[in-house]
Amino acid sequence: MKLKAFFLCLLGVSATGLQAHDLNVIPRPAQMAVGEGLFHFNSATRVCLPHYPGDSVRMVFTQWAGNFKAASGISLKETSKTKKAAVVLLLDATLQAEAYKLDVSAGKICISASRPAGFFYALQTLSQLMPSRSVVAGVPDNNVSAWSVPSVRIADAPRFEWRGFMLDEGRHFYGTEEIKKILDIMAAYKMNRFHWHLTEDQGWRLEIKKYPKLTEIGAWRRSKVLGWGDTKPDGQLYGGYYTQEDAREIVKYARDRFIEIVPEVDIPGHSQAAVAAYPEFLACDPQTRHDVWLWQGVSADVINVSNPRAVQFAKDVVDELTEIFPYRYIHLGGDECPTAKWERNNDCREQLNDIGSENYRDLQINFYRQLQEHIARQPAERQRQLIFWNEVLHGNTAPLGKDITIMAWVGADRAAKEAATRGLKTILSPQIPYYINRRQSSLPTEPRSQGNGTETVEAVYNYVPMKDIPADLQTKYMGVQANFWTEWVEDASTVQYLLLPRLAAVAEAGWTPQQLRQYSDFLKRLQAEPAFYRMKGMNFGKHVFE
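Above: the chain's sequence. Below: its structure in token form.
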């Protein structure tokens, strides 16, 4: 490169006037500089891939090359000789697991990473640099006359290890294909944790073979609409669930996109559907009738934590989750767990006395301690770490030790700091503004949901994770997560409308260094995304698009 062009590249400006911020990459890379010219793909383009255990780097590239062929019609051929290749993937052991370098010149593309995930994320960036979003979507686009990429140098790595999204399917059920669409969007935005909220008062959505009534009874209710205020249950039979084979299919689909699935079974609160399935040992008052709940809000029908059969039930459920979801974490809820039924139950009162406490929240902690001890007795490959919502901080968490993670949602900044101060890992998931099921506009056209429209794209983007946190606590902060609760959201199209493009804003908070984040710059880059959403057949909020 000529000396003048080299200095222009360092400044992020090409000799032709193209600047780094003109490239519509989301999330914005940590370092990016533009050079001269374009790299052109054609039928003669050859690729050289490195040897890696299990051929996983080859699998990553093959998946991407399939999307590229679908979009462009160009089939990329492989060569074993680096000098003959125009696209070269190189192993660089100095890079972090998810980091990558992407160096594009007029004659060559070099991608460096230490692990398959790094190559995967580099290829997501490469797709966004192309003239059409069809490569990201994996669909044909015959309107592109030349498939090219601008010369650019990128050195990139995520800010946080946890970049998550949670979908609640306990209230409403959407099905395998809709989940896959969401996973595709997450992968394009380099998000790596799908928190799958599978159980609620209003429905149990995962087959548990040892307890078939959980889906025979717990997956169904007598209303699609959930009652709230003037909205009354409609009486129709509604529900659905995932078989374990369904769940494994989704796990594999996510794994191929470097997304770990974190299942959530919410116990002992938010458990009325489970209690309705097995009231004889889960209910605090088995003599009364128990049905899957038809209403929003928080049910008082919690699991009887003093019943040994209920504890064994929870252990068995955790064991089956461990078989289906092969990752480190299981989420057990812990939020909004009323204690009124425990307070009226003789066995619960006796257990509280036995553990030497007067705080009924500690019955919940004791319940979790028994599950934690059960997990600790398993072989190493079956060991799991537990995640809880931050309400568990209202009890004495000392019996659970330091090996739990707190997901902070209500008073999130304060709760996360308290968790970190206690020596616990924490994930920021603030209700305001990261509950992206809430209305994103005050317009009358906005779909029925929670909130009054203040959780706009700009509000979501401008949230600053880990703001003013002392350096000695920052290592406890694992990352960020957006949540989507579905009390009001009965169809997948509305999920998509509220999800997009706000998910992109959360993704950038999880990946991009804070000092590079600027809403006006993000908004400019965001303008390219409707083409991607439409190609994926997904609905989206239109408020911020020109």
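Residues 362 and 396 are 6 Å apart (CA to CA).
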